[in-house]
């Protein structure tokens, strides 16, 4: 059977108290390319999970297999080319917008695909941005989109997104969501997407992972999770998120 990624008994301890688990015994199989929304209250370890999957942090227990091969059997650079993480706070590399766009090809000694870079900039409404401008001068939302494009140019098999649309205005957010759904449909890129925007998860993702009580409490098709949240924590989480969204609308 084909398998994109298998996560087995994965655990991470809380830094400050080495005997306490942030999460433990996390098991999941991604047997075919998918878009998976990762939901849960703040502090459940969603970002930490993504960083472990992206090999930016070591787990304290368990294993991860990519294409049936254990993480430890992979060269870390080869892993990061296939499984790429886009952080919540976009980090710009020193230099211009173009320097940032070219990073991937420089790092991995590949030709720079200028046509693809231009097309991605256009899709994310960055076509007006001057590539010779210092990347540090971009707005927060522009930096976030540039960081996403930089990673997309790597064309990873698995894309790890950490609240990448949180700092975007509505139009840019919708453009990013559309681009990611199209990317998944066109190329079969698997996308693991941490978001606090339930509508984003519902409309873009086929599957939901819900983290609570130091565990992956649910791994369900998106419609099942939203229609029949499987645990008390999931019900409470959806209720409080809906109440928060309603307050935002009326404020
Ligand atoms: N390297 C690490 N090892 C263990 N715990 C960490 C590490 N880095 C951060 N933490 C802690 O893990 C906890 C969960 O953080 P994390 O950012 O993963 O949660 P989250 O579910 O993504 O939260 P949010 O939704 O607020 O972004 C925090 O208390 C954080 O201090």
TrEMBL record:
Domain ABC transporter: 5-238
Superkingdom, taxonomy of origin: Bacteria
Matches recorded under PROSITE patterns: ABC_TRANSPORTER_1 (PS00211), ABC_TRANSPORTER_2 (PS50893)
UniProt xrefs under InterPro entries: AAA+_ATPase, ABC_transporter-like_ATP-bd, ABC_transporter-like_CS, P-loop_NTPase
Keyword Nucleotide-binding annotated: yes
UniProt keywords, alphabetically: ATP-binding, Nucleotide-binding, Transport
One MF annotation (Gene Ontology) recorded for this entry: ATP binding
Coiled coil location: none
Protein known as: ATP-binding cassette domain-containing protein
Protein source organism: Brevibacillus gelatini
Classification lineage: Bacteria, Bacillati, Bacillota, Bacilli, Bacillales
């Amino acid at each position: 059977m084909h398998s994109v990624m298998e996560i087995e008994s994965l655990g991470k301890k809380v830094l400050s108290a080495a005997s306490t688990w942030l999460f433990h015994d996390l098991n999941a199989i991604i047997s075919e390319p998918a878009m998976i929304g990762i939901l849960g209250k703040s502090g459940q370890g969603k970002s930490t999970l993504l960083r472990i999957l992206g090999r930016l942090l070591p787990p304290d227990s368990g294993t991860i297999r990519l294409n049936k091969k254990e993480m430890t059997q992979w060269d870390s650079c080869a892993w990061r080319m296939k499984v790429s993480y886009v952080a919540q706070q976009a980090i710009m590399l020193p230099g211009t917008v173009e320097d940032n766009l070219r990073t991937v090809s420089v790092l991995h000694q590949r030709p720079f695909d200028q046509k693809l870079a231009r097309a991605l900039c256009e899709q994310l409404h960055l076509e007006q941005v001057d590539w010779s401008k210092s990347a540090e001068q971009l707005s927060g939302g522009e930096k976030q989109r540039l960081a996403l494009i930089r990673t997309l140019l790597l064309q990873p098999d698995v894309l790890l997104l950490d609240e990448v649309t949180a700092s975007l205005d509505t139009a840019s957010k919708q453009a990013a969501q559309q681009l990611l759904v199209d990317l998944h449909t066109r190329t079969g890129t698997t996308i693991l997407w941490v978001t606090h925007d339930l509508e984003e998860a519902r409309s873009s993702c086929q599957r939901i992972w819900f983290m609570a009580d130091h565990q992956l409490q649910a791994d369900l098709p998106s419609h099942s999770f939203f229609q029949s949240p499987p645990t008390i924590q999931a019900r409470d989480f959806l209720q409080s998120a809906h109440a928060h969204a309603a307050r935002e609308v009326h404020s």
